Design the sequence.
C-alpha cells in the first residue's frame, strides 16, 4: 500500500463530548476526537466497543444524543447542513449486503443508488459500467444480489457507495467474514480509488488487527472510549509492542489486561494416536446448491485441527454433518471408528459442540446452565456439584455463578459456552467460530483453555475460524472455499509450499489457483471530477426510483405478488358466496284435511313463490314428525277440515305451521314468509268476493325498494365487500413494505441518501395504488360476471372515487406504523418517546435511529386525529349510486 502524505487540512470530522446510550448500555462515553481528512482512518477494537455507533453519528444516520459532531465543516445537528452534506458522504453498513436489495440484480442495485443521487441516464450508464468493470462484477450484472458470494456483495456495496463520488467514504467492518483474496482485492481497490481521487477521506471500522496495519491513522476504542490515536507504528512504539494486537492489549485498562498471558502451545505429539474423525467424500446439497463438495480429512486424537475459510464456504455445514445434526447427501464420516449416526447416543456423548451463537439458556444462571447440561448428558446426580465446581474453577466462572448469561461480557459468555460443551468430559470438541467478536485478551484466554484440553486431557479439537492468527496456532489446518478443501497440512507446510511470506498470502495463492485468476489487480474505476446533483427539496426522480424498485421487488416476490393479485379475488369469492342472508328454496309439505278447491288454491299460492318448493303431501302426524327430523322438509303446514267453507263464510280459520328451528333467525324469517303469503292469499280472496265499489279507495300505498328491490343478499353484500377488501389488502401490503425495509436493514438508505420522507413514502405507495386499482377492476368484474350484480350509475365516477379511496387506504397502511414498535403490532407510546419502524419517516428530523431505539421527540409528529375519522368507505359506497 502507498501511504498518502498527510496534508494540513481541516479535519473531516470533529467530535466534542459525544455520548450515546441504548437504555442502560453506554455505547459512547464523552468522546472528543478530531479525525484527519484525506487519509484512511481506522477504528479498531472488538465488537461492542462503540465503533458502529460512532460511524452512524458521523454519517448522520443516528440522532446525536449528547455532544457536538462536525462533519465536512458543518454541524450534524443542523438539518439543513445534514441535507446538504448527505450527497458528499457514502456509507457501507456492517453486514454483507445489508444496504442492498437481494431480489434486484447487480445493475439494478447500482442504478437505484445512482437515481437517488440525481444522475441522468447517460451519466448513470457510464458510471455503472466503469464501476462494474473495475470491480469485476460486469459479467454478473444481471445476477440477483442475493445470489452473490460474500466478496461480490462487498464489491457491489462499494459500487453503490461510490456511484456519486463521495468525499467521505465510511466503511463499517466491510471485510468481516469474507475470504482473504476478496479482502485483499477490496483494499487494493480502495487504495487505487484514493490515488485517483486524492481528496477522498475513508473512515473504516475493523476488528482485524492485521488489516488495520495498512491504515494511515488509527483510533483504538474500548468500552465506548478512545484509548489512543495515531498510526500503527506510533501505537506500537507508544506501547513498546511488536504487533498491533499486542499494542491494543497493552492499551487496555490494567484491570482488564492484568490476567492476560501469552498463549503457550506445546508441540503436538501424535504417538500413533487413533483417528478421532474421518471423512470421505463428504457432500451436502441443498437443492441444486452444493454446500460441501466431497470433503476428505483424518484427525488423530488430541490434535487441534482448524477449518479456515470465509463465511458461507461450508465450515458450519461440515461440522453439523460430523455431529449428526445434518444427514450427508453423499460420503461417509466416522467418529472414533464408528459411522456417524444421529441415533447413536453413546457416540454423541463423546462429542462436545459449541456453536457460533453460544447455546445457552438466558433464563438460567451460570450455575444452572452447567447443572442443566450435566443432567442432559446423564452425569450421575451425586457427581454434578463437584463437576460444576470443577468447571467454574477451571474456566474462571466462580465470581459470576449467580448471574444470567445475557448480563455477562462476551468473553465470559464464551468461556461459559466452552464449559457447557466439556462438562461431560468429551473426547472430541467441535467449535464453530467460537472467538468471533471477542477482545484479544478473552481470545487468548480461550485459546489457552483449548490448548490445555488438547495437550493435558487429550481432547481432539476441531475448530473453524476466519482469523489467520488463530489458524497459525492450530496443529493442522484445511483451507476451505466454496465447499471444497483446497489444501491441508500444518500452517508452516502450507506457507512453504506456496513460497509465501504468511499464511494469508498462501491462502490467497490457493484461492487464485482454484479460481484460475492471476495476481494482477483489477483496473481501478475511472473517477471523474467530483460532481454532485443539485440538492432539491422534492425530487420526482427519487420518488419514481423508489416506485420502480418497489415494483421490481414486488414482481419477484411470489408471496407478496400472489397476495397482491389474488388475495382480494379469493376473499371476494369466499365472502360473496359464504356470507348470505337469503332464505330461499324452502321445502314444505302440506297435511290437507279439507281437500277442497280453497285448500288446494292456498297450497298452489304458496308453491308459486320463489321462496318455497312443494314436496309430496303429508298423510299423518307421524310422517310429519319423521320427515322434519330427517331434514326432508323445513316447513310443514296442516290445513284443518272445513277450511274452504269457513273462508267462504268469513269465519276465522287457524292453520298449523311447523318450522325447523335449528337456526332461530332463519326460522323467524320463514315464519314471516308464511304469514305474509297467507295474508296475501286472504286479501286476494276478499278482493274477488267483494263488489268493485267496496274495493275503491282514495289511495293505494305499496312498498317498493329503489335499490335491490328483490332484497337479495348478493346485491347487498358484494358491493359492501369491495371497499372492505380494498381497504384491507392494499393498506396491509404498503405497511409491510415499510416494515420489510426496517427488518432487512435497507431502511438505512433513507437516512444516508438525499431521499426525503415524502419521496420515500409516496414512492413506495405508488405501486400499491396501481395494484389497488387493478384489484378494483378485478372485483368489479367478479361482481358483474360471476355474482351477477350489475353496476348502476357512472363507472367513471366510481373509478375516481376508488382511486381516492385506495390512495387513502395505502397511505394509512404506511402512516399507521407510527403506532407500532414492531411488525407484531405492539403499541408503544410513553410520554415523549416513540418507538417504531417508521417513526423517522414522519418526523422533520430525518436522522432518527434505524435500530428501533427510542429518542426524544424534538419535532411535531402526526396529528392526534385518527385516520378512521375520515371514513373513506363512504366515498366509494356512495359513488356507485344512480
Sequence:
Amino acid at each position: 500500500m502507498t501511504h498518502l502524505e498527510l496534508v494540513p487540512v481541516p479535519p473531516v470530522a470533529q467530535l466534542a463530548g459525544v455520548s450515546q446510550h441504548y437504555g442502560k448500555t453506554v455505547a459512547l462515553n464523552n468522546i472528543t476526537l478530531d479525525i484527519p481528512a484525506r487519509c484512511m482512518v481506522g477504528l479498531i477494537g472488538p465488537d461492542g466497543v462503540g465503533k458502529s455507533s460512532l460511524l452512524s453519528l458521523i454519517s448522520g444516520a443516528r440522532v446525536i444524543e449528547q455532544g457536538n459532531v462536525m462533519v465536512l465543516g458543518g454541524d450534524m445537528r443542523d438539518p439543513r447542513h445534514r441535507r446538504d452534506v448527505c450527497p458528499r458522504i457514502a456509507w457501507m453498513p456492517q453486514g454483507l449486503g445489508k444496504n442492498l436489495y437481494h431480489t434486484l440484480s447487480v445493475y439494478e442495485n447500482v442504478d437505484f443508488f445512482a437515481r437517488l443521487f440525481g444522475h441522468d441516464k447517460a451519466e448513470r450508464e457510464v458510471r455503472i459500467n466503469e464501476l462494474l468493470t473495475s470491480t469485476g462484477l460486469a459479467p454478473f450484472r444481471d445476477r440477483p444480489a442475493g445470489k452473490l458470494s460474500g466478496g461480490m456483495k462487498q464489491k457491489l456495496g462499494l459500487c453503490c457507495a461510490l456511484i456519486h463520488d463521495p468525499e467521505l467514504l465510511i466503511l463499517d467492518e466491510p471485510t468481516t467474514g469474507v475470504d482473504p483474496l476478496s479482502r485483499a482485492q477490496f483494499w487494493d481497490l480502495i487504495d487505487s480509488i484514493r490515488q485517483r481521487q486524492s481528496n477522498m477521506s475513508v473512515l473504516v471500522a475493523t476488528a482485524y488487527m492485521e488489516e488495520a496495519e495498512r491504515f494511515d491513522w488509527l483510533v483504538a476504542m474500548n468500552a465506548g472510549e478512545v484509548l489512543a490515536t495515531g498510526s500503527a507504528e506510533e501505537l506500537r512504539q507508544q506501547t513498546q509492542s511488536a504487533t498491533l494486537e499486542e499494542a491494543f492489549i497493552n492499551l487496555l485498562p490494567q484491570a482488564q489486561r492484568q490476567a492476560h498471558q501469552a498463549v503457550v502451545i506445546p508441540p503436538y505429539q501424535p504417538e500413533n494416536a487413533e483417528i478421532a474423525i474421518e471423512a470421505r467424500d463428504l457432500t451436502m446439497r441443498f437443492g441444486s446448491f452444493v454446500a460441501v463438495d466431497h470433503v476428505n480429512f483424518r484427525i488423530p486424537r488430541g490434535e487441534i485441527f482448524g477449518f479456515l475459510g470465509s463465511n458461507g464456504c461450508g465450515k458450519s455445514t461440515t461440522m453439523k454433518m460430523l455431529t449428526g445434526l445434518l444427514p450427508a447427501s453423499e460420503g461417509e464420516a466416522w467418529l472414533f471408528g464408528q459411522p456417524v449416526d444421529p441415533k447413536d447416543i453413546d457416540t454423541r456423548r463423546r462429542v462436545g459442540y459449541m456453536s457460533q451463537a453460544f447455546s445457552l439458556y438466558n433464563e438460567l444462571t451460570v450455575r444452572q446452565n452447567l447443572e442443566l447440561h450435566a443432567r442432559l448428558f446423564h452425569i450421575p446426580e451425586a457427581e454434578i456439584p463437584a463437576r460444576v465446581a470443577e468447571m467454574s474453577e477451571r474456566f474462571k466462572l466462580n465470581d459470576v455463578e449467580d448471574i444470567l448469561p445475557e448480563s455477562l461480557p462476551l468473553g465470559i459468555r464464551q468461556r461459559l459456552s466452552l464449559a457447557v460443551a466439556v462438562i461431560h468430559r468429551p473426547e472430541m470438541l467441535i467449535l464453530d467460530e467460537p472467538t468471533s467478536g471477542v477482545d484479544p485478551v478473552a481470545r487468548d484466554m480461550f485459546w489457552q483453555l483449548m490448548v490445555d484440553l488438547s495437550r493435558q486431557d487429550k481432547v481432539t479439537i476441531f475448530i473453524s475460524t476466519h482469523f489467520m492468527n488463530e489458524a497459525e496456532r492450530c496443529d493442522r489446518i484445511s483451507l476451505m472455499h466454496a465447499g471444497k478443501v483446497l489444501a491441508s497440512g500444518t500452517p508452516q507446510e502450507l506457507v512453504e509450499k506456496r513460497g509465501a511470506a504468511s499464511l494469508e498470502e498462501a491462502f490467497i495463492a490457493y484461492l487464485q489457483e482454484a479460481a484460475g485468476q492471476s495476481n494482477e489487480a483489477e483496473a481501478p474505476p475511472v473517477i471523474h471530477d467530483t460532481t454532485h446533483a443539485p440538492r432539491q427539496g422534492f425530487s420526482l426522480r427519487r420518488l419514481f426510483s423508489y416506485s420502480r424498485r418497489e415494483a421490481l421487488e414486488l414482481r419477484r416476490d411470489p408471496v407478496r405478488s400472489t397476495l397482491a393479485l389474488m388475495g382480494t379475488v379469493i376473499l371476494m369469492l369466499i365472502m360473496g358466496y359464504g356470507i348470505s342472508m337469503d332464505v330461499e328454496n324452502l321445502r314444505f309439505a302440506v297435511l290437507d284435511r279439507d281437500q277442497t278447491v280453497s285448500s288446494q288454491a292456498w297450497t298452489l299460492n304458496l308453491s308459486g313463490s320463489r321462496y318455497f318448493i312443494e314436496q309430496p303431501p303429508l298423510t299423518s302426524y307421524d310422517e310429519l314428525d319423521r320427515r322434519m327430523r330427517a331434514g326432508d322438509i323445513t316447513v310443514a303446514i296442516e290445513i284443518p277440515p272445513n277450511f274452504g267453507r269457513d273462508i267462504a263464510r268469513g269465519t276465522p280459520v287457524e292453520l298449523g305451521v311447523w318450522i325447523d328451528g335449528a337456526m332461530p333467525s332463519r326460522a323467524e324469517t320463514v315464519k314471516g314468509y308464511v304469514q305474509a303469503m297467507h295474508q296475501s292469499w286472504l286479501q286476494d280472496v276478499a278482493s274477488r268476493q267483494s263488489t268493485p265499489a267496496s274495493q275503491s279507495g282514495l289511495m293505494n300505498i305499496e312498498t317498493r325498494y329503489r335499490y335491490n328491490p328483490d332484497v337479495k343478499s348478493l346485491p347487498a353484500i358484494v358491493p359492501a365487500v369491495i371497499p372492505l377488501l380494498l381497504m384491507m389488502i392494499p393498506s396491509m401490503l404498503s405497511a409491510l413494505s415499510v416494515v420489510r425495509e426496517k427488518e432487512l436493514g435497507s431502511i438505512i438508505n433513507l437516512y444516508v441518501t438525499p431521499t426525503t420522507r415524502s419521496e420515500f413514502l409516496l414512492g413506495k405507495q405508488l405501486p400499491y395504488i396501481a395494484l389497488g386499482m387493478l384489484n378494483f377492476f378485478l372485483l368489479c368484474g367478479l361482481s358483474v360476471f360471476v355474482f351477477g350484480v350489475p353496476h348502476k350509475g357512472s363507472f367513471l365516477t366510481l373509478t375516481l372515487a376508488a382511486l381516492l379511496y385506495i390512495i387513502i387506504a395505502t397511505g394509512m397502511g404506511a402512516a399507521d406504523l407510527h403506532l407500532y414498535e414492531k411488525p407484531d403490532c405492539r403499541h408503544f407510546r410513553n410520554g415523549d418517546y416513540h418507538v417504531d419502524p417508521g417513526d423517522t419517516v414522519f418526523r422533520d428530523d430525518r436522522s432518527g435511529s434505524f435500530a428501533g431505539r427510542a429518542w426524544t421527540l424534538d419535532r411535531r409528529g402526526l396529528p392526534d386525529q385518527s385516520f378512521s375519522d375520515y371514513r373513506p368507505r363512504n366515498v366509494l359506497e356512495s359513488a356507485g349510486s344512480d
Observations:
- The first strand starts at residue 13 and ends at 22.
- Residues 518-531, 820-882 have pLDDT under 50 and may be disordered.
- DSSP finds 31 helices and 27 strands in the chain.
